[in-house]
Each structure stands twice: as structure tokens, then as C-alpha cells.
Amino acid sequence: MNNDELVKTAQAMMASGKGLLAMDESNPTCNRRFAALNIPQTPEMRRAYRDLIVMTPGLGDCISGAILFDETIRQKTNNGTEFAEALQQAHIIPGIKVDLGARELAAFPGEKITEGLDGLATRVREYVKMGARFAKWRAVITIGNGIPTAGCIDANAHMLARYAAICQDGGLVPIVEPEVLMDGSHDLARCAAVTAEVLHAVFDQLYLQRVILEATILKPNMVLAGLSCPDQPGVDQVADATVTCLLRNVPAAVGGIAFLSGGQPAQSASSRLNAMNVRWASKMPWPLTFSFSRAIQKPALDIWAGKEANVPAAQQALLHRARCNSQARQGRYKPELEKPVL
Ligand code: 5MM
Asked: Which residue's C-alpha comes closest to atom 17 of ligand 1?
């Protein structure tokens, strides 16, 4: 695939009024979410749940691309269609998570490094044949006493850049996801400082590894206070801190920015994305949208609870969150949208 096609794919992923759906939970993560709802943790139940998501009528009106996990891209929907093909039929671009998860970083207690570069070029070729058009790699940065260290940030930034270069070479648009976790008691300013340092390191490495920014999507965390910080900022404060940090550290050439939700309540994630698009629309050089997993899926998963009879109601809940975030991406989200129409 040539660079023009990669850029076109990145633009299609950032289509107006749409965002990305992360449905790429690894088996341990998916199983943990199923276990909390007493859903059997089997390949068939994971397949049935992903079928529910992909077959939601109208999803393609709000979702431009969906990130699959390796197990799912090899499975079929209830009607025997491969998931990547079913997504294409729904006008959703299929993507694939290609990292192999975060592990302890040797010599850096409490910090992690994401693995998966070995054999990546071969896997990319296989995923392209299966219909994938973009990829995702998530690095995890923890804020705590004395961390993150420069060693951890640099190692993860380097891996992200090598991953991105390999994907572009093989024909996939890379989503680069350096996630600064919400866990901890740090305040908003500390999250802003760490996120800035991480983004700076990531774009340094993307430059060194000759990654084409126009064919790259950044998936960052929003700038938030830690979950146990007593001083929780308001919606506008989060929006301003986040966009200020991005404007200072993300080159204008980047194809787009699509946030992870990181465990925020679904409505908070929508309100904060909306505030950014309302308050900063005229200043941002890139489209700003969502690539949420939990903030789109959680209400639907709770309703489904593993029961076939609950599929239509769960699909309605999923579509509702997708629509709310589509509105937020356009700066048109209002809390009234959350009230059921009587
Ligand atoms: C941070 O997680 C990503 C976005 O999800 P949220 O919106 O829920 O924060 C998500 O794409 C994540 O990378 C996948 O769910 C895979 O995670 P695991 O932990 O299974 O590798």
C-alpha cells in the first residue's frame, strides 16, 4: 500500500461526526469484565458479545473504525461472516490490536513496557490479508512516587515508534496509544506535566523512526486528576488542560487524535470531549474524537449479562453511547441526550 492510501485511511478513520470503537480487549481483560457479571469466560461467549457489538443496527453512522483483538478477527458472526468483513458491510473500517500486552519493565520497579515487536512485520501482513486497515499499540505509563522515569518513557516511546514504522511499511495506519493511567492521588497539573513529557518523547521517536505523521492517529489519555485526588477539576478545566497539553506537544501534521476513556464514567467522557470541541474548535489543527472501549461498551455489557434475550436492549444502549460521543465529537452533546425519551 502506498502512503496516499494510508493517509486516506487515516482521514476516513477521522470522518466528520464519527469516532473509533475499541473492542480489542485481550482475553484476560475481557474475561475479567465477564467474571464481574458472572458471564462464562469462553471463546464462544466472547464471540457472541462481539457479534452483539458489530451487528448493532446503525453503528456505522457514528463509528468509523473498530479495533479487534486477534481472537475476534479469526472468528465469525452468528451468520457465518468473518468479523472484519461484517464490519466492512456496516461501513466500519476494521482495525487490529497488535501489541502483546504490557509486562514489568526489568530494572524499573512499578513500571511497564509493552511487548510485541518480534515477528510484527509477518503478523501485519497476515492482518492486512484478513481485511485490517489500521492497528493499535498501547503503552502504559504509571504516575507514582518517583515514577514515571525517563527510562520507562523512552523505552515505551521507542517501541511505539518502531511499531508505527513497521505498520506503515506493511500497509496499516498505526494508532499510537501512550496511556498515562488515572490511578493515583496526583493532581491535574502533575498529569499534565507527565502527559507532556510522554508525548514529547513519543513524537521525538516517531520523527527518528521516519513515521509518516499524516498517516498516524494518536490515542492519548485526557489530562485528569488521579482517581483518588481530593481536588477533582470541572469539565472545562479538564478540556482546557488537555487541549493545551496537546497543542504544545502534538505536531499539526498528525492525522487525528482519538481519546481513550481510561475508566472514566461514560457521561464524563462524553462531556469532556464535547467541551474540548466547543471551546477549542477554532484553535485545533487536527480532528479530535474518541476511541473509547469502556465508555461506549460498559452500559451495553451490563445489560447483556451473557443472555441472548438481552441483545436488543444491549444494542440500544451501545448505539446510545456511540451517538452521544458522535455528538460530543461535533461539540453538540448535551446532558439532556442522556434522558430517555418518554
Ligand atoms: C486503555 O484501553 C484502551 C481504551 O479503552 P478505554 O476507553 O476503556 O480506556 C483499549 O483499547 C485497550 O487497549 C483494550 O481494551 C485492550 O486492553 P488490554 O488490557 O486487554 O490489552
From this structure: 25
Domain ranges, residue 307: 3-334
The whole-angstrom separation of Cα 333 and Cα 324 is 6
Catalytic residue chosen out of the listed positions 25, 97, 111, 177: 177
340 part of a folded domain = no
pLDDT band at 1 (very low <50, low <70, confident <90, very high): low
The Cα 110–Cα 203 span in angstroms is 24
Inside any domain, residue 342:
no
User: 238: domain CATH number?
Assistant: 3.20.20.70
pLDDT of 122: 98
Backbone conformation region of residue 50, classed left if phi is above 0, alpha if psi is from -120 to 50, else beta = alpha
Give the pLDDT score at 342.
52
Q: Tell me the pLDDT band of 93, cut-offs 50, 70 and 90.
A: very high
CA of 275 to the centre of ligand 1 (A): 23
- Is 297 near ligand 1, meaning CB less than 6 Å away? no
Residues 289-319: pLDDT tens digits?
999 999 999 999 999 999 999 999 999 999 9
Q: pLDDT above 70 covers what percent of the chain? A: 99
Pocket test for ligand 1, best of 69, 97, 227, 272 (most atoms within 8 A of CB): 97
Number of domains in the chain: 1
Annotated catalytic, 85? no
* Among candidate residues 111, 140, 153, 144, the one with its CA nearest the CA of residue 226: 144
